[in-house]
Give the backbone structure.
Amino acid sequence: MKHSTLTHLPDSFGRPLRDLRISVTDRCNFRCPYCMPAEIFGENYSFLPRPEILTFEETVRLARLFATLGVRKIRITGGEPLLRASLPSLIAALAGIGGIEDMTLTTNGYLLAAKAAALKESGLDRVTVSLDSLDSDIFQLMSGGRFDPQMVLDAIDVAAAVGLSPIKINCVVQRGLNDDGIVDLARQFRGSGHVIRFIEFMDVGTLNDWDMKHVVGADEILERINERFPLEELPPNCPGEVAKRYRYLDGSGEIGVISSVSKPFCGYCTRARLSTEGSLVNCLFASSGTDLKTPMLAGAGDEELLAIIKAAWSRRSDRYSEERFDRRELLDDEAAGQRIQMYQIGG
């Protein structure tokens, strides 16, 4: 484990900078309707050209600066991050940064089995795998008609075998689509040592046709599981953890519930996001970010870049989910209509 002297950098609400999510590609081989709907992202969709994407060297340089400001955890995201060529070399460089204590990656699982060993060898600690249903028809509906859930289950087994654990499995729950499978997913991973996390359907971006009627709230999710497998709440693993933890009373493991809609947790959010093209984004629901790539290309030194990052985080006042909750509606003002899309900043 690496350590360095860390600066505590609070935002305007006193929230420290602790977690950095790095989107390494805007491309994905799935077409999940809540992120990259197939009717918009068709075969001819133009993703970012290579020159506009942060290089590995640029990414590592920025990550080192974030580490000096208090970042201890890095998560690699996309798009689908495993589509990025030579990704293990980037992970190795990031894992070697002083102060970084946890290197993780979120994936849809399609390429995970083939790449798991190399990822572990490069210094990756853990993976989070998306799995919205065990039912093949529903899975294909929620992945854009692609692949099969068994492929994801097999990849989880391979990842666990090489030591990328404990594995977290994320399920985005949508009423009338996959909510009937909540208990089945809980049952699947009971006793496995993995943690299934149920995520309320969120209004990230502007492309997923979000409506409150499609949201299954955390209380309902817990009630359904608790009726079959009794639960009790656990304390968080660390400050800023977004998932509420619950253990099975019979000792067969735990689950998590992420309640951004019904019980927002903006007040202790410690996450910054680095977009594929090099913008610092302070909130999942942000309408814009702070460009870091342009000053880098113009020759900015580390101190200049640090000043830009510090200024952007220090004035951070984002609390979209709490504001939406207070108003009990989608915030549909001008800024909301321009929100950054999930595939650009990795959820």
